[in-house]
Structures are given as C-alpha cells and as structure tokens.
Structure prediction request, 246 residues.
Amino acid sequence: MLGLFFVFSLLVAAADPQGSAVTTSSSVKPQPQADRASVAEVGVAYNLTVAATSQTNYWAGIYGNITGEIKLRGASNRSIFDWSIGAMRNQSSKNYYPLLFAYNGTSIPLWSSLSGNPFSGAAIDSLFSIESSRADSGSNTFTGAPTSFVVGNKSINAGAGGAARLLSYRVTDQASRASQEVSHYYETQVLNDTSGNALFASILRPIDQNMLLFDNASQGNFQMILFSNSTNSGQVPNYEFYLQLE
Prediction:
C-alpha cells in the first residue's frame, strides 16, 4: 500500500489553526498466508472449497492517541495562560465532540462552507473514481448512520450521508482479555467542503478501559480510514491534519 504524507495543525473553536507535532511510532501490515496444497488422486472427484484474503486497494488506516493544550497567546507566541487537556471528553447531548480531521486540499479548509451532510458512499465513489461494484468501494464501506456533531459553529447532521464503522473490541473479561468484536465505537465520515476536496472526520473517544482498538490489544482515542489508491502509483495523497479539541 502506498504511504501517506502527514502534516499536522490545530483547530480550537474559531481560532486560526496552530502547528503541532505528530509522531508515527509504528506501522503494521498483515503477513501473507502460505500456499496450501492437497493431493488429488486420479479417478476421484473432490468437492473443493477455497478461502482467500486480500488487502484493500483503496484505504489506509490510522489510529492512536491525542494530547493537547489550549493556550492564550500573543503575537510572540508567549502564553498568558495555558490549559492542559488531560483526556478527551464530549458533550454528546449537544453534539459537541473533540474531532480529528484529515484534509487533502491545498489550503486551509473552509470550515464555514462545510455542507451540513457528510458524503454518501456513492458520492465518495464518485469523488475518488472508485467502481461502486468493488467489494471495498465507498458504497460498501460508508454504510453506517453517521453521528451528528458540530464543527466550530457548523452542525453536521446524521440524517444523510454515510459513516464507516470501524472494527474494535469490547473487553468482556479483563482477567483473560476475552473480547467481543464490535463496529460502532469508532467511525469515519467524509465531509464536503464544497470545493471538491475530501475532509475526513473522526470523533475522538475518551480512553475506555472496556474498549480496545482493532488489534485487540491497545487502547486509543481514534481509529480512522483514509483514501490511498494503491492501484495507481502516481496517487499518494498528502493529508493535513486538524484538531478540534473541545
């Protein structure tokens, strides 16, 4: 799969985005399965069932943890006051969530011009020129009902569009770490900034001792998927990341 280039910025309410550091600690790829053979005896008819797994050609995954600060600064970037954010929180009753955005445009997103509805799976196929009949198309990926949230002063509604529900695990027995696979805790939406560029969005979740990431081992604030077309060696998306902390 092709790599993704990351640039990080910070969005706090209506303030201008501020630079922030991003660290990639590791990347993981599945190990290819070894071929398996079976001897066929002459004169015998066999009922053969074949199962195979292949990696997607369209999507890359990112996951991890978010830490941050809210600062009151002057032009010299010296702080009058700092507020440390120790944990992600949300006010779901008001649709206020901390959010992570990944943007592949060439300028700062026009937050005020965001459409009130996220892209549907079919619209994502059209945006990225994906064949809708493919198993890993946008139409077959962004099939969940999206969560409503507020970006700055803009409400994003759950009434239309689609969300990719990413696989995670609910710990049912801390002693043995026996877990149950779930697909509702983390989600990715693709927002429309009316300029034809994709703005991927993910709600940041508080660390939950009863929830594990896709690897069924670690905990984190987010999981999200991004478009990364490995069928065309000339397409390596350059994503800029933005945070809305509160």
About this structure: Confidence is low (pLDDT under 50) at residues 9-19. Residues 114 and 194 are 7 Å apart (CA to CA). The chain has one domain: 60-244. Residues 60-244 form one domain.
